[in-house]
Each structure stands twice: as structure tokens, then as C-alpha cells.
Amino acid sequence: MERTYLMIKPDGVQRNLIGEIVSRFEKKGFTLVAAKLMTVSKETAETHYGEHKERPFFGELVSFITSGPVFAMVWEGESVISTARTMMGATNPQEAAPGTIRGDYGVQVAMNVIHGSDSPESAEREINIFFNEEELNSYDKEV
Ligand code: CMP
């Protein structure tokens, strides 16, 4: 089963959108495997956003994501990587369709509420940056 890394950014946390966003993925039918409120270190932010290192906004990106707590999550389900991105909407909230998370709650590209992995390779890499194996829950055990 596919897994993805989703992270509610400091703007989303401060605007009390955690419950609303988690609810959307729960109602869609995906399974929450791990979640934690955490403050990202500069080193972790630079590793996570390594592919954007040469972009002019890299410094801004790192300082924003480390500016306050984020809500880091791992979600599981069929095609969860691409479906979560569809539910998030375009990177720039001004271009994101109404009904999507960024379309409904965002205005600026830097403060676009949520991050989601863009491929299976990124998902694996990002999950391993933010979570260790023991934090990834299994629903297989009998209740
Ligand atoms: P995210 O999905 O977290 O991945 C990289 C982030 O870079 C992206 O969301 C945006 O928030 C951010 N970003 C993209 N373009 C710009 C820009 N021009 N200025 C500031 N941040 C940007």
C-alpha cells in the first residue's frame, strides 16, 4: 500500500487548520499511520528542501518552515501520493481550485498551508527524514 508524507506548515498550524485538514484525509478514506506536532530544525529543513537549494527563495523557504510548529503526518492508501496532491491543489494558492486545501485556505505561495510528497521516491525520503520506524503505526494487530 502506498504511503505519503504530508506536513501542515506553520501558517496552517497557527490558523488552527490541523483538525480541518486531517478530517479531509480521514473522510476521503486514507489511513493515518503517524503524526506529530514538531518544530523543524534548520538542518532538517535544508535536507527536506534540498532539491530547491539553488532557488532564489530557498532561504525564505527554510526560515518559514522553521518559524513555528508544523504538523508532520504519514498517510496510507491506494494512490495516496497523487490523490493527496489533488486534494491540496496547486502550489500557488492563487491558482489552486476552490475546494482544494490551498484553494480554500491559502493566498501566498510561500505560506501555502501544506506540503505533500510529489512521488514515491520523495515520499520514502521525506517519511524517513521526519519519522523513525517505531513511529510508523500498524493496524494489523488484533484489538
Ligand atoms: P512545497 O510543496 O512545500 O515545496 C516547495 C515550496 O516552495 C512550495 O511548497 C512553496 O511553498 C515554496 N515556493 C515555491 N515558489 C516560491 C516562491 N516564489 N517564493 C517563496 N516560496 C516559494
Topology:
Blueprint: E1 3-8, H1 10-14, H2 18-28, E2 31-38, H3 42-48, H4 58-65, E3 70-76, H5 80-88, H6 101-105, E4 114-116, H7 120-130
The chain binds adenosine-3',5'-cyclic-monophosphate.
CATH homologous superfamily descriptor: Nucleoside diphosphate kinase-like domain
Number of helices: 7
Distance between the termini: 21 Å
Structurally, how many domains make up the residues?
1
Q: Which CATH first-tier class would you pick?
A: Alpha Beta
What does it look like?
The protein is built from seven helices and four strands. It has 143 residues and is α+β, with helices and mostly antiparallel strands. It has one domain: 2-Layer Sandwich (Alpha-Beta Plaits), CATH 3.30.70.141. It is globular and about 50 Å long. The two termini are 21 Å apart. Bound molecules: adenosine-3',5'-cyclic-monophosphate. Adenosine-3',5'-cyclic-monophosphate binds at residues 52, 57, 60-61, 91, 109-110, 112, 115. The site of adenosine-3',5'-cyclic-monophosphate has 9 residues, from helix 4. It holds the Pfam family NDK. This is Nucleoside diphosphate kinase.
